[in-house]
Amino acid sequence: MIKEVPTRLLAVLLAGILVLSTGCLNDSGVTQTSTEQSNESTSLQTGETVSSSQSASMPTRSVSSTTETPSIEVPEEANATTSTATEVSSVVTVTFIVSVPDYTPENGPVYIAGDFNGWNPGDENYRLKKREDGKWEIMLEFERRTKIEFKFTRGSWETVEKGRNGEEISNRVLVLEESGVYEFTVYHWRDYVEEVGVGTHTIVGNVTTFKMFMPQLNRTRRIWVYLPPDYEKSNKRYPVLYMHDGQNLFDQPTSFAGEWKVDETLERLFREKNFSIIVVGIDNGGEKRTDEYSPWRNEAYGGGGEGDAYVRFIVETVSSCTYFCFKH
Question: Residue 232 to residues 183, 227, 256, 284, 320: CA-CA distances in angstroms?
Answer without folding.
Answer: 53, 9, 31, 29, 20
